[in-house]
Each structure stands twice: as structure tokens, then as C-alpha cells.
Specification:
heterodimer, A: alpha/beta, 7-stranded parallel sheet, 11 helices, globular, B: alpha/beta, about 40% helix
């Protein structure tokens, strides 16, 4: 595997003490970057995270508690990075906090507002603060997304709506920052993380693991994709979306996927 | 450096700038690069005595005679200056021909297959590119259980566009994007 050299670089990953955010941080750290991880709720024991970075030969990360919806917390994170390292090269906007949707009756204005506040607006507040502190945006800005904006998944209403807004904002940033930063959207399909288990019912997970295991993406695969986008070799994709899905999206429909499901049922896998 | 050592990349004939940039990126990482060039053109550390008019079978047989197998296949399609209906149909089918032939002659599919087409304001080129995009999805589905990843890169027909596309192809084949399958990447030239 090709390994770009990120020694001397600093990376900020939000919502990064578990799941895809942590995978992105680990992958960047493995290539030598000094990584700063933010979190607000939950996440693994910090010592366990530090050990994972050690195991990868990565520099010790900084882990900061920061609420992505609060501008003062955003300012604190950026200033801390500036004071400690004097630079911020890569920004991975991963934080996503939403409620479960599910039906028209369940959709509430307050929940949509909260979802956007945590999962969409922070891309703008973070980039604004970074530009203010450092005089320029990070070299690479990546928004972590999913194919939810274009495909229905059960209970995924708020996530999908937030990701749609996030992607639109990222594309706008790409226009504004052309020539100044590489701006990308990274979409992944089903990734086996705690967030997935929290969002989808056990039956959904069972269908995926028993009938469509080939669909599943490992978090580390997403982490490596972040590295690829930060490498400089994909600068021609500025403003575009990179979709990591093992090709599943193209044939994920009733007629193509249905027979696979039926076979799994016939073999008692479901 | 050296992350591609032991790997073999076959590039079909294509626009000079793209072929040159892609070849150098792969060679710099230690890959053996074979270019199906014009008039037996050689770039890299292996030569295939084949020109752009020869079919995939002949090219693969030649590669096999050197004791090599193809790890990476880069198919340049629709890059010709003049396109006709017949040429477009053949260009759409080119990747299918290579896949079948590599399997038949060399015993296995390449691990990485990247089709490269130009972004052109031309009816036939647009139709051909759209067809190839769809075919990329279908081929991905057909080979889902195989260790093959097929993707499409569309380059802006400028020097920067071709250089950037070569870099994107290099990254697709780097091992960092192995779950990228059946995708179209549109590469900008500015």
C-alpha cells in the first residue's frame, strides 16, 4: 500500500473518539500526522484510544471535549491547535448528532434544528475559525457523509436531511476555496460502528450481515480513503464526492438484491 | 517509494500526456509498466511489441510470454480525435474484451481496472462515456465476488487535467481505496 508522508502535518477530526472519526484519525496518524480528536459525548476510554494510536506507530493524539454546536468551543479547539502546533493542515468534519426519524408523525421541527446544528452548520463555523486564526483554510477539508441524501434508509430522516445540507455547504465552500484548499465529500455506505447499531434496528443489521455482508465497509477502509484525499493525488476531485461502497449502490434495488435476500431466507440465514 | 514493487500495470494506448504521467507515477513506486503504445513505443522498463491496433488477446499473450501477469489494467477509451459509431461501440466493449482475455490467457482478472475517458463536448464521446459509466456499474456487479475493482475516471482534456487524472488513477490503484468500486470520478483540469 502506498503511504503518503504526513509527518509535520496537523489534522483535526471532529466527533472522533469512535467509529469513522476515530478511524480517520488513526489512519492520518499512521501516516505521521499529529492528530487532534474532538468529542462531546461517549466514545471509548481515552487510554484505549491512545493505545490504538501507539499500536499504529502514530504520534500521540490530543483529545479535546468540544461541543460542535457552540462557537466558543470551536474557537477554543482551533486556538489550542494554533498555540500548540502553529498550523492546521487537514480538517475532517465528521461530527453527526441526530435523533431517529421514522414516520411523518415523528418528524419535529426541534429535532431537525438540532440535527442541523450539530451535523451541518459546524463545517462553516470550523472553517471560519480556522481561517481567522491561521489566515488561510486547511489544505484539505473533508466532510464525512453517506448516501442517505439520495437513498431511503429506515429511521434515517434526520441524518439524511443533515447530510444533504452538509454536502451542499461543502460544495459551496469548494467554490469559494478553489485554489486555496482541497474540499471533498466522502460518502460511505453501511459501516459497522456503534452509530450504525444505535440508528438501525437489529433486524436491519441482521439482513446486512447474513445476506449482504459484501456491502459492509470497514471503518479502516474509510480511514484510508481520508488519507487518499489528504495525499494531494486526488486534488482533481476538488468539490466532488468520493463514494466508498464496494459498488453496492448501483445494484441495491429490489430486482437485483431481492434474489440474494430470498436465497438467504431459503437457507435459513434470516 | 517501492510500494508497487512486484506489480505489473498495462496501459492501453491513450493520450500521450496521460500515459506518460501515469507510467512515471507507477514506475516511481517500483511497478513494471507496459504500454500498448503507438509503433511499439516504450515508456518504462518493459516493452511489449504491440501497437494500438492489436487486440487484447495478442497483447495478453505477449505479456504471458514474458512470464508476467497484470495487476493493474488502465484502459484509455474514446480518446481518438475522430469518433464514428463503430469506433464508439468498440471503445465501449474494449474493457470487456480485456477482462475476458486477461482471465482466459493469464488465468485471472487484474486487481485494479481503471477506464479513462475524456470530458468532451461531442455527441459521440458523450454517449460513449455515458455507456461506459453504466457498463462500469454492471461489470462491478458481475465481478462482485472477485478481487477486482473497476472504476472510471473522466479527464479534462488539458495538460493539468491529464496529469491530475494520472494521479487519481495512481491513488485508485494504491491500496488506499480498495473499497472504491463501480465509481465515476470526474477530474477537473483547473
Amino acid at each position: 500500500m502506498f503511504r503518503p508522508d504526513f509527518r509535520g502535518k496537523t489534522a483535526l477530526v471532529t466527533g472522533a473518539t469512535r467509529g469513522l472519526g476515530l478511524a480517520a484519525g488513526l489512519a492520518l496518524g499512521e501516516m505521521g500526522a499529529q492528530v487532534v480528536l474532538t468529542h462531546k459525548w461517549g466514545g471509548d476510554d481515552h487510554n484505549a484510544i491512545l493505545e490504538r494510536f501507539r499500536d499504529r506507530g502514530a504520534p500521540k493524539p490530543i483529545i479535546i471535549t468540544a461541543d460542535a454546536a457552540l462557537e466558543e468551543d470551536t474557537r477554543h479547539v482551533v486556538n489550542l491547535i494554533g498555540d500548540a502546533y502553529g498550523r492546521l493542515d487537514f480538517f475532517v468534519n465528521n461530527v453527526c448528532v441526530t435523533s431517529r426519524g421514522g414516520s411523518l408523525e415523528n418528524l419535529k421541527s426541534r429535532d431537525i434544528s438540532q440535527s442541523l446544528k450539530y451535523s451541518a452548520w459546524p463545517i462553516l463555523t470550523y472553517v471560519k475559525e480556522i481561517r481567522h486564526r491561521f489566515g488561510s483554510p486547511p489544505q484539505k477539508i473533508i466532510s464525512m457523509s453517506s448516501d442517505g441524501p439520495d437513498h431511503h434508509y429506515p429511521f434515517y430522516d434526520y441524518v439524511a436531511v443533515s447530510k444533504a445540507a452538509l454536502e451542499a455547504l461543502t460544495r459551496r465552500l469548494a467554490v469559494e476555496l478553489r485554489g486555496k484548499a482541497g474540499v471533498f465529500i466522502l460518502r460511505a455506505r453501511q459501516v459497522s460502528t456503534d452509530s450504525f447499531s444505535e440508528m438501525f434496528p437489529a433486524a436491519s443489521k441482521n439482513i446486512l450481515s447474513q445476506a449482504f455482508s459484501s456491502f459492509e465497509i470497514e471503518p479502516d477502509a474509510v480511514g484510508r480513503s481520508v488519507v487518499a484525499l489528504c495525499s494531494g493525488y486526488l486534488d482533481g476531485l476538488h468539490g466532488e464526492t468520493l463514494c466508498i461502497d464496494k459498488g453496492a449502490t448501483f445494484y441495491d434495488n429490489v430486482l437485483s438484491a431481492g434474489p440474494v435476500l430470498m436465497e438467504a431466507l431459503e437457507h435459513g440465514k434470516l | 517509494m517501492g510500494s508497487f514493487k512486484g506489480r505489473v500495470a498495462l496501459l492501453s494506448a491513450g493520450p500521450d500526456k496521460f500515459v506518460e504521467c501515469a507510467s512515471r507515477l507507477f514506475m516511481n513506486e517500483g511497478a513494471c509498466v507496459i504500454v500498448q503504445g503507438k509503433n511499439g513505443q516504450t515508456i518504462g522498463n518493459e516493452t511489449v511489441e504491440a501497437d494500438s491496433t492489436l487486440d487484447a488477446g495478442t497483447v495478453c499473450a505477449e505479456i504471458s510470454s514474458h512470464g508476467l501477469k497484470i495487476d493493474t489494467l488502465i484502459v484509455c477509451a474514446l480518446w481518438q480525435t475522430t469518433l464514428t459509431y463503430e469506433i464508439v461501440a468498440a471503445e465501449i466493449h474494449k474493457t470487456v474484451a480485456y477482462l475476458k482475455t486477461t482471465k482466459d490467457v493469464l488465468g485471472e482478472y487484474p486487481k485494479y481496472v481503471v477506464i479513462v475517458t475524456p470530458q468532451k463536448e461531442d455527441n459521440l464521446a458523450s454517449a460513449g462515456s455515458a455507456s461506459i459509466k453504466t457498463l462500469t456499474g454492471y461489470l462491478t456487479r458481475h465481478l462482485l465476488e472477485q478481487d477486482v475493482r473497476i472504476n472510471l475516471c473522466r479527464y479534462a482534456p488539458s495538460e493539468m487535467g491529464m496529469r491530475r487524472t494520472a494521479e487519481a488513477v495512481f491513488m485508485i490503484c494504491s491500496g488506499l481505496l480498495d473499497d472504491l468500486r463501480g465509481q465515476q470520478l470526474t477530474i477537473s483540469g483547473d
